[in-house]
């Protein structure tokens, strides 16, 4: 008879395993969060909102196998349709979340209002736009989504497209440059910094990549900025050196910015990303941020706040919040270790196909 | 279509038919077979599609590229002579009847 008194006053739906989770974003972070929640035995509802209408896919192949045609749409999907059904993960594709109300615990999406117990921001990042005057009927090309990749492929494969200008010598710019050079185009890469991927690579590796690209005729212009772009019959880029470059297509890869406006407007603390603690919890209890959008204290950077843009970071943080939501927050230590690789090495380098690399070493 | 048997990370057997040219990783992901995670989507950069290939088929596999070799070094489950990355092995007629074992950890 005493038993009921020992039980605290628990509201009817307080078993964390049965609450409902809304995830905003269907990239690596969002999909992994759903998968890990189910693996941890979470029984409540899981609903993922994705602004992108394409069936959830992985982004890394977009500048690699998907671009060169060795991987097709269905081979870069995260999971099969049956998986979402079997695991009762609801997908709301092509649905933009426009507002989050933290006091009501609701999100407002294109199709209506939805209540959550836990909310996960897995909103990723978006491309930084070129901050220079651009005159022309077309726009330069960017690469982030499958649609972008389709457009890029079409633009590069068009007949008569021969001269390519890549603005930005980072991972994505170089991967695209490699693809274009491989397909026989004349490629110029303009990079503002004095060396390639300065932020993440030691000088020796920068030089290694520079040499590799140059061996295939890529014209690398380091320490050079683009001042404006004008499109006539061709694009004309004026450079900070006073020179100019003409091109049939211009591709821009100058970094990304965290998608945080939604969180910011809801009153969640943000700076260069949505700020989270070691458990990926934001300044509001029960609301998490993971992946490219999350600014977290990194154990490998002496606890400094960092924002990483990598698959492994997204996946590991997703695992962290899944166990936190399921009431087992301790597993964070194993997960957030960036164990398998480090920040730079878990990126696949832009490499030329074997055959080309071999012949280059013979030539050189 | 070649028939492939997966032994998932829980030890359960799944027999599936895969189209020529699909990878072992894609076959597992699309048939919802437990244990292949494929974080990188087949870009040979995560080693979470590590699997063990049935002995009899080892000499029928496409040769391993340097990249795959390097990634396998970082695999979580022990690397053996039968280790391959599922995303780097495409199904051919020669692989009909193949048995693929998926490790417990990726
Ligand atoms: C071309 C390319 C190549 C890359 N190569 C590599 C690589 O080789 N290795 C590596 O580690 N990383 C690579 N990356 C980076 C990697 O893809 C990202 O780190 C990873 O995708 C981050 O996952 P995420 O889930 O945090 O964000 P994202 O994948 O960006 O997903 C966020 C999703 O949220 C959705 N969203 C945002 N706001 C809203 C809203 N308000 N309502 C609804 N939906 C919303 C967006 O539509 C988006 O799909 C690459 C990225 C690109 C673009
Ligand atoms: S899927 Fe990542 S290495 Fe195979």
Automatic annotation (TrEMBL), chain B:
GO terms for biological process: P450-containing electron transport chain. It comes from the Bacteria. Transmembrane segments: none annotated. Residues 2-106 form the 2Fe-2S ferredoxin-type domain. The keyword Iron applies. Belongs to the adrenodoxin/putidaredoxin family. This is Rhodocoxin.
